[in-house]
User: Which sequence fits this backbone?
């Protein structure tokens, strides 16, 4: 089995899409291993987005991700579960995301694109350790 991190971002929580997003993963056959609605702090976000520190969009990203609660989850499934999750999410830019994907169906702007999913098995391991250290 393989695990990956999923974050239903503040816009997904605010707009009431957490249930729909998680149900899409579950209908695909993936299973929730851990989940929590939490207010993300700047320290946690700094570790999560460490590769973006110092970039022009970093402060806006942290402000967005910490403005209200996010739903953070670990999803488990077959090998390379991260790839399944990312396919269901669709491209980062909702304008380019096809219908049937989460971002294609519910996304409106690139800077608030509803959901994060780890981009590799290595990223998933690192990100799970940040948000759910007991699972690492």
Assistant:
């Amino acid at each position: 089995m393989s695990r990956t991190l999923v974050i239903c971002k503040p816009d997904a929580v605010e707009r009431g899409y957490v249930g729909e997003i998680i149900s899409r993963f579950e209908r695909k056959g993936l299973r929730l291993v851990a989940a929590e609605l939490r207010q993300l702090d700047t320290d946690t976000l700094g570790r999560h987005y460490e590769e973006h520190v110092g970039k022009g969009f970093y402060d806006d990203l942290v402000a967005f991700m910490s403005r209200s609660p996010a739903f953070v989850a670990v999803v488990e499934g077959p090998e390379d579960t991260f790839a399944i999750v990312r396919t269901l999410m669709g491209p980062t830019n909702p304008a380019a995301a096809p219908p049937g994907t989460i971002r294609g169906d519910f996304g409106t702007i690139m800077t608030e694109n509803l959901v994060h999913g780890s981009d590799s098995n290595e990223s998933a391991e690192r990100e799970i350790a940040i948000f759910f250290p007991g699972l690492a």
Q: What stands out?
A: The domain at 2-135 is CATH 3.30.70.141 (Alpha-Beta Plaits). Residues 90 and 101 are 5 Å apart (CA to CA).
